[in-house]
Amino acid sequence: MVEPYSRYVELQIRVVADQKEGLLFELGQAVMACGFSMVRQRMAESNEGISLNFAVRGPEGGALELEDRLATHRRVRTYESMMHEVSAPAPPKAPGPAPRATPPGYASHAYHSASAPPDMLLNGRTAEFGHRVAASAPRPTYDRSRLEILLPKLAADYPQILPRLALLEQEVPPEEHDAILRYVGNRVGAWVYKRDFSLGARLGLHDAVRHIALPAVRQLLPADVEDEGLRIKASPFCGNGQHGRTCHFFRGFFEGLINTSRTDKPANIEEAHCRNSGASYCVFTFTD
Amino acid sequence: MEAVHCHHNTFLVILSYVVSVLGSYTALQLAIGIPAAKTAGERWRALLGSGAAVGGGGIWAMHFIAMLACQMNIAVTYDLPLTVLSALIGIAACTLGLAVASSGTFSWVKLTLAGVLMGLGVAGMHYTGMAAMLMPAQIVYDPIIVGVSILIAIVASIAALWLAFNMRGWMQLLGAALVMGVAVCGMHYTAMAAAGFVPLAQGANEVAQGLHGESLGITIFIVASVLLFGTLIVTTVRQQQRTEIQI
């Protein structure tokens, strides 16, 4: 169990495996299961085999479990890691989230590689959402027509879409995160509803959350429903150096899932707590 | 006069459960599409299709396979009009039940009403089917066990409808069909336990005019084949529609 407000750390990890197919996805699942988020990755073929270098961020309390999982993972032949402290996140009722200090050594190579390495692969495919740019650099407005290229790819990969979405988040200027990721979430949610959940009676909001939203989001990552709302345990949109609530994709995803089936007024869906602001879980509330 | 006994053939008893599950699965596959129907015509087609599948297939065919499984030491045939009427009762009650369950937003009141309608449909079909029996014997029922059989049909129907309409996914649909099979078979075999057969001196003439086991067997075979074919068609069409949905 991860401590609610433990210090955040960043782990620089290198693993060697025999095959690259599905490697990033499988290790990414282990990373998310421990409450960490993958912030960057680079895969290359070497004499040893497939070498995957990646960095993850998350609460210090989960680091040992993560290292244990990765070091003993069936796909991993050799494992090396190095830990850095990032910051202590603000408690949930603080007036505003504390800015997360990025270690200078990381800032220099985390996002500034204006041209991504040619051998950077994502789950066996070349990453196609442009090159990463410095987080502080001015960005042009995001070309939304690119979303129409992205969406069919998300449909083809579904439910293994989180790596693509993580790349999209890096590509979109921070001021457009909410609108764009929520829009993509909405489109994906509506599509998933029509594909997998449209058959059956029209459900009330309470039943729809339990029988539609929960099983749908569980295809993507661990989640459960408590009195406070629907809880996501390891959102990949947290701990990426931004402030405040960051799970815009999931908010839109739930809106698409729930509101597509409603004939009366749409449900109001909010992210009440976010792990990015120091909470233990990202919690979504649903009201009529 | 020799006492009349019913000895059940195990293979046919199992087959009766399999047919009731198959009928229920086909029916529920069609029924869960009712709320998504775009036109009134589409809705009624799905309603009648699912009502016919569960009433005619899941319940009626199951009942008569179970009656073939019941081997008695007297000749038994079936009155054709009453046999047809028993099927119509099952189809009508189940169509009504499914219409209620699939209308508007899901609620426990609707679910209970739909379950009662379907449970009464199962029971109505059974007891009409029993009344269709032509034999040199009279049926007497234990009223308490009859009540229990109707209760089983209603409770299991509510459970099956809850699973089918409230939950999502093919596993839930299969679970609902298995539970509906329990509703139909549980009701039938409990009702059979409530029935006693008192031998009569007369009745041989009526037996000769009724529908014989062979004709019934062929009819059941046709119904079961239609159900299997229906399941295959519905599954294939659904799969095709699923892949065509654009993001």
What is the ordering of alpha helices and beta strands of chain A?
Answer: EHEEHEHEEHHHHEEHEE
C-alpha-based Rg of chain B, rounded = 19 Å
The main pleated sheet of chain B reads as:
2 strands, antiparallel
N-C termini distance of chain A: 33 Å
- Anisotropy-based shape of chain B: elongated
**Number of helix segments of chain A?**
8
CATH homologous superfamily grouping of the largest domain in chain A = Trafficking protein particle complex subunit 3
Strand order of the largest sheet of chain A: 2-3-1-4
Averaged pLDDT of chain A, please?
76
Shape of chain A: globular
**Low-pLDDT regions of chain B:** none
The CATH level-2 architecture of the largest domain in chain A is identified as 2-Layer Sandwich
**Helicity range of the residues of chain B?**
over 70%
How is the CATH topology of the largest domain in chain A named? Muramoyl-pentapeptide Carboxypeptidase, domain 2
Structural class computed from helices and strand pairing of chain A: alpha+beta
Taken as a percent bin, the fraction of beta residues of chain A is 15-25%
Number of domains of chain B: 1
What is the terminal separation of chain B in angstroms? 74 Å
**Topology as H/E string of chain B?**
EHHEEHHEEHHEHH
Mean pLDDT of chain B: 88
With strands numbered from the N-terminus, the spatial order across the biggest sheet of chain B is 1-2
Report on this structure.
The complex is a heterodimer of chains A (288) and B (247). Chain A contains eight helices and ten strands. Chain A has 288 residues and is an alpha+beta fold. Chain A has two domains: 8-126, Alpha-Beta Plaits (2-Layer Sandwich); 144-287, Muramoyl-pentapeptide Carboxypeptidase, domain 2. A four-stranded antiparallel sheet of chain A has the order 2-3-1-4, covered by helices on one side. The model of chain A is unreliable at 1-5 and 88-137 (pLDDT under 50). Chain B has a two-stranded antiparallel ribbon. Chain B has one domain (6-244). The longest helix of chain B has 32 residues, at 213-244. Chain B has helices at 10-31, 40-69, 80-101, 108-131, 143-166, 170-194, 204-209, 213-244, and strands at 6-8, 70-72, 77-78, 133-134, 137-141, 195-199. Chains A and B meet through helix 4, helix 6 and helix 7 of A and helix 5 of B.
